[in-house]
């Protein structure tokens, strides 16, 4: 597996293994993690089922955070969306940027979503709820590949209300309730300076 990764990265396998690895960008510039494919992702692919398209909203949100891609992140929300973290609410996309995205997206992060359950409102087929589990790893900017760097791993439950946007066909989050269940590591990493 290592040889495949180094070949993809354009490198060669070192003769001795070192516990320190150089960051591999796989074609993305170090300063910006925005994807060159964002524009293509902002349309609902015809091959997605309704349930997959609903799940795609949460995937766009967390991938937007991990890649610091505001356009992708914003595509996952309605303008008046609410983000609720353990009862602390941010109302409207501008407040969500201020209170969450602008800081967390600058960190070295990866979010993993699993156990998604989707229920579509049978009355209109345009609204839905989604629940999921999430693991998120957080490092200070540029420190994700440093051995021994301080980190924060979180386990959360997500409950989302979503609506299908008739303008672009994308499902968008109207309410995102995040219940932080446990943390392991340094909480100061996610606190704005």
Automatic annotation (TrEMBL):
Tree of life domain: Eukaryota
InterPro entries in the record: NTF2-like_dom_sf, SnoaL-like
CDD domains membership: NTF2_like
Record domain SnoaL-like: where: 47-176
Pfam families: SnoaL_4
Coiled coil: none
Name of protein: SnoaL-like domain-containing protein
């Amino acid at each position: 597996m290592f040889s495949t990764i180094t070949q993809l990265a354009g490198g060669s396998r070192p003769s001795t293994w070192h516990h320190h690895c150089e960051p591999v960008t796989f074609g993305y510039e170090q300063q910006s993690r925005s994807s060159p494919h964002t524009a293509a992702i902002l349309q609902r692919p015809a091959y997605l089922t309704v349930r997959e398209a609903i799940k795609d909203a949460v995937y766009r949100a967390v991938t937007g955070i991990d890649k610091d891609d505001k356009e992708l992140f914003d595509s996952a929300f309605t303008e008046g969306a609410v983000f609720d973290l353990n009862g602390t609410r941010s109302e409207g996309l501008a407040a969500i940027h201020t209170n969450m995205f602008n800081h967390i997206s600058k960190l070295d992060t990866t979010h993993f979503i699993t156990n998604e359950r989707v229920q579509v409102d049978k009355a209109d087929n345009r609204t839905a709820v989604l629940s999921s589990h999430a693991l998120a790893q957080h490092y200070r900017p540029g420190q994700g590949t440093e051995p021994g760097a301080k980190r924060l791993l979180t386990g959360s439950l997500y409950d989302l209300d979503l609506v299908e946007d008739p303008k672009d066909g994308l499902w968008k989050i109207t309410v995102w309730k995040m219940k932080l269940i446990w943390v392991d590591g340094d909480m100061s990493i996610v606190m704005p300076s």
